[in-house]
Amino acid sequence: AQSVTQPDIHITVSEGASLELRCNYSYGATPYLFWYVQSPGQGLQLLLKYFSGDTLVQGIKGFEAEFKRSQSSFNLRKPSVHWSDAAEYFCAVGFSGGYQKVTFGIGTKLQVIP
Amino acid sequence: NAGVTQTPKFQVLKTGQSMTLQCAQDMNHEYMSWYRQDPGMGLRLIHYSVGAGITDQGEVPNGYNVSRSTTEDFPLRLLSAAPSQTSVYFCASSYISEYGYTFGSGTRLTVV
User: Fold this and answer.
1) Residue B49 half-sphere exposure, CB side, CA atoms within 13 Å?
2) What mean pLDDT, rounded, does chain A reach?
3) What phi, psi does B85 have (nearest 5°)?
4) Which positions in chain A touch B92 (Cβ < 8 Å)?
């Protein structure tokens, strides 16, 4: 069965600093990978996705993520964090073949300090 | 605004009561899903649908029922509410799974 691990439950960064959120997955074939962001009291918003092609994908709000097959990872990065990036971030994995039963990680809560 | 609409936003139920959480989308998406979100557990799939008249169970289906009579609507029914069903419920839809989901804003349910 597929699984997703987000090893960091909570991360604090200073505004303007770089950010990397880790995500590892367990699945036999090439997965479909997603990052979502959730602001307090809101639903999840898709930041970016990977399912084929270039392993470095660009998303909204200045985020990017890199798929590394050898490490089974799909880490999310941003070069300079803004206070408005404070939120919870979820990595998710699905597999091909009709409907995807997408599996979500437990999330990483990002705190941004001045 | 196009998107996924969930109602109600908040609900308190007594143990044993039943209710229906509503979900509607206006993007003509075939795929729709219900998730529950609990602290420290991420999102867990309850039920999903790949089109009108077609539904299937997800990871945690017990105590919940769904139907899909139209492309737009995908209601979730709690048959006999239990405190363990206290959670935040999200409905999501997608055109093609690989494109990712559009989520509703959620329903916060408390069962006392």
Assistant:
1) 26
2) 91
3) -90, 5
4) 44
Count other Cβ atoms within 10 Å, centred on residue A11: 15
CA distances from A24 to A46, A66, A75, B6 (A): 18, 12, 8, 31
Does A22 have pLDDT greater than 80?
A: yes
State the nearest Cα–Cα gap between A107 and chain B, in angstroms.
Answer: 6
Q: What is residue B40's predicted lDDT score, i.e. its pLDDT?
A: 85
Answer yes or no: do A99 and B4 touch at CB < 8 A: no
Helix, coil or strand: residue B17: coil
Report the first-to-last Cα separation within chain B, whole angstroms.
34
- Alpha-carbon span B76 to B65, nearest angstrom: 6
Which tens digit of pLDDT belongs to each residue from A82-105? 999 999 999 999 876 656 678 899
Query: What percentage of chain B reaches a pLDDT higher than 90?
Result: 88
With an 8 Å Cβ cutoff, are B97 and A44 in contact?
no
- What pLDDT is stored for residue A95 in this prediction? 73
Name beta bridge partners: A26.
Answer: A3
Q: What span, in angstroms and rounded, lies between the C-alpha atoms of B27 and B11? A: 26
Identify any residues that bridge with A45 across adjacent strands, giving them in sequence order. A37
